[in-house]
Amino acid sequence: MPQNRAIYGQPFFTLPDQTNNQLQISPRVPGAIMLENINAKSLDSIIIHAPENTLERQYVLARSLFSVKPYGSILAFASKTKGGARLAKEFAKFGCNVEVNHQSHYKITACQRPTKVQKLDAAINAGSPRYEHGIGFWTQPGLFSWNRIDPASALLISNLPPLEGVGADLGCGYGILAKSVLGTGLCRKLILIDIDRRALAMAERNVGLRETETIWTDIRLAKDMPTQLDFVITNPPFHENGIEDRKLGCAFINKAAAMLKPTGILWITANRHLPYENLLNVAFSKVMLITQNQWYKVYKASK
Fold first, then answer.
1. pTM to 2 decimals?
2. Cα–Cα separations (whole angstroms), residue 247 to 45, 252, 264, 277
């Protein structure tokens, strides 16, 4: 481990302890090391792009304090409106004395790990994977719609016919769409693809391994993806770091078109305001609006 220094996420600006050889430990950076696998008191320092979700953020802070040596440095930052304003109090709850600075719209909180920390176990337990009985899925705080079935996916599920052959779920999350597709018994294999390692782990628990394969990748950068697929299903994201980015959905559509065989079909759901129709009509020979309501729409696109 280079210099026993780690970084969680991607800073948008240069930070005091940032170097080029820090160990990446964010589950949303494909190929990163698992934070959970870092030994206790083994890191000299860690930089954290703190997540917006409260349970997820406190879990990451607690795991980081567990992993850093006494008197090692911890620097966490977040947008003031997306958790940054709470960082100092959260560190104080764990027994840390912090220094707070500001840069642009971000709060930067720095501290040395004290010899004695407190309440780590409670935060780690609260942010760990769990079975949510209300929705019937294994999930984890911080995943998209982690404790409810998102209505766009529900609308797609209610309009999906039984899908046969080999397909892929782009941005599978914890497996809501996949469980529905595999439940018909007609899908021979479903490839689960997501940028978040935790989502793939939960999806595997929810749908099993027998008829699935997982790929941990960023769709925008992915190469050598499966091709000649019978179908692709997707509820693509359209936010990154809390900011709407319509290019994300466009990347999913283009990748789906490249992965499908000549007779393949894309099933996609999206918010009504997202203008994917033009791209769908360019990438596919036939596009049908299957249904829509006040908020969401479902398309079937054929190669």
1. 0.93
2. 35, 9, 23, 13
Torsion of CA 5, 10, 13, 16, to 10 degrees: -10
Domain edge (last residue) among 103, 127, 151? 127
Same domain, residue pair 88 and 202: no
CA angle 300/164/154 to nearest 5° reads 50
| Residues 6+ away with beta carbon under 8 Å from 128 | 59, 140
- Angle, helices 120-127 vs 54-67, to 10°: value is 130
Domain boundary among 127, 142, 158: 127
Give yes or no: residues 283 and 204 share one domain: yes
Task: List pLDDT tens digits, range 95-149.
Answer: 999 999 988 889 999 999 999 999 999 999 999 999 999 999 999 999 999 999 9
Sign of CA dihedral 44, 50, 56, 62: positive
**Structure-token pair, residue 35:** 């934070």
Q: What pLDDT digit, counting tens, does each position of 43-66 carry?
A: 999 999 999 999 999 999 999 999
Residues 41 and 22 in one domain: yes
Bridge partners, 137 (sequence order): 132
Token pair 């797609």 in the structure block, residue? 156
